[in-house]
Each structure stands twice: as C-alpha cells, then as structure tokens.
Amino acid sequence: MSEALRLLPIDAATYVGHSLHAPDRDWPETNCYVDLWVEVLHALGHDPVAGLAFTLAVGFDGDQWEFFKYPAEDLLTLYGIQVREINVWRSLEDHIATHLALGHLLTVEADSWYLPDTAGVAYRLTHQKTTIVPQYLDPAQRRIGYFHNAGYFELEGEDYDGVLRTAEPDGLVPYVELVALEHQVHLDPVALRAQVMELVGRYVARRPATNPVAQLAARITADLPWLREHPDLFHAYAFGSLRQCGAWASVAAMFVRWLDDPAVAGAAEHLDAISALAKTAQFKLARVLAGRTVDLDEQLSTMAAHWHDALTTLAAAYGS
Known about the structure:
- The chain is an alpha+beta fold.
- The protein is built from nine helices and seven strands.
- The chain folds into two domains: 5-180, Cathepsin B, Chain A (Alpha-Beta Complex), CATH 3.90.70; 210-318, no CATH class.
- Strands 1, 2, 3, 4, 5, 6 and 7 form a seven-stranded antiparallel β-sheet that branches.
- A hairpin with a 2-residue loop joins strand 5 (143-148) and strand 6 (151-156).
- Helix 6 runs antiparallel to helix 9 (297-318) and helix 7 (234-259) runs antiparallel to helix 8 (265-285).
- It is globular and about 60 Å long.
C-alpha cells in the first residue's frame, strides 16, 4: 500500500478553524472530542454550533464535570452522519486507508506523545490519551493529515509510526469509530432549525434535577485538603472540574445565541458569566500549588446562581 489518500481538499498550513476556537474566547478549547467534531463538521461544510443542543442537559458526575460530547444520534439527525465503533482487526494504517478510499472518516484513539500540535504540553513530554480524525494518509511518505483539538495538522516519520502503532502491532487495540458520510445531508436553514428545536425541547426536559454547579462547588470545597497534598494532580483535577464546567458554559452560551430568541437572551448572559467565573476560579485554585489558602465560596455560589437562572429561563421558554 503506497497510494496517498485524501478526503477533503484542505492543507494544514492554510486551514482556518471555526470561530468557536477563536483565541480570544474564555476557553479556546473544550475537550478533545467536542473540539474535534467542531472542526470536522466545519470542514465538511456544516454549522457545528447547531449541534450543541445537548449542552443544555450537561451536569455533574459525582467527582467531575460531565465530559460532554456530541451524541451520535444528534449527528445523524442534523447532519446525516453515522458514527459507530468498528472492530480493529488489521493495522490502523490499513483501516484508515480502506475507509478513506470508501469516503469515510475514522475517529482514532491516539497518544499525544506523537502529536506535534501538542508541543509544549504533551508532545514528547507525556503520554496522554486523545482522539484524532485522519483525513489524509500517505504511507509512502509516512505522513498523516489529521483533525485534533482546535485545528487540522500534519505529522510524519516517527510520529506516523507512533500514532499508527506500527512498532507494537500486538499492543492494546485502540478505540476507533467509523464516521460514515454516504447519507450526509446539508439541511436548509428552516429545516435545520426545526430539527434543532425538537432536540432543544428534549434536552431541556433532561436538564439536571439538582443544580450541578452547586454540586461541583461542594466537591471542590471538600477536595481542597486532598489537592494540597497532591499538587502533581492539579492540572488533571482542574481540567475535570472548573475547566470543563467553564468550557461547557461557553459553548452552551454560543448555542443559545444561535437560537436567536429574545426570550432566552438572558440565559446566554448567565452562561457567559459561568464561563468567566470558572476561568478566574481556576486561577485562584492554582494557589494551592504554593500552599496558600484558597476560598472559592463566593465565586462558586455565584456560578451556581447563574446556572439556576439560565436553566430557569430556558425551561420557561422550551420546557416546563
């Protein structure tokens, strides 16, 4: 196998990402899965913000903020894109090549150690699980063009071998999803909005029964003594708590504004406030690394009040 395969006519040097990843936003990145899908949808000519209705039902999972993701059923409903796990029984290189030739994409579990776009954070520094979507493969040149986080990038050489696990064919099989595009649709704005509004009603009905930001606040307060004793885990802890909460609020606000409904304009402002407060709270939380006392009660309680007001507004407009 030596033929180069490319699904989309894009280039890493000239690719322009979606505005959701603009550097001036509170959280230019959310999590690896949402960021990935924002850029894949954007590159395919879709509006990724229209698919964010699911954010209205995001909550707290007991020890961390929910790792929110585009639901497969929403991708199918709004964009005609089918996503399902595949059985990895050959090399990753073979699977990627086969599906690119068929007009499909794959989401591939990867190690950030081999992803040059993470330079300074993980690349050749630490092993971190993440997800990429290769859309260009050149086996002869050992080069891949891939979506990851907030953009589209290329890697080659040793990184190609590392991402595709060519040196460890008998290692743990990565999680891989098929992104089937044969039934992809680009709905007109009226039809798209109608589908989105159906999803909005469902997700508002599924909103957390208990204020999840208040639950997060209680957990952070309880965890502070533990965090002082485990400063090496600060970044992982902050990611799963304040960063995910803030990033969620930021993209949820963008979605509410996409609805362009005066009845819920105030909800977007409350969500923006959560985003901004979470960012400043994360900076304050970092003081534990220096052994300093941290009091986040006022900020966290204000965030919880904003969640209550935002979801009350949304429920009045679209639910009960």
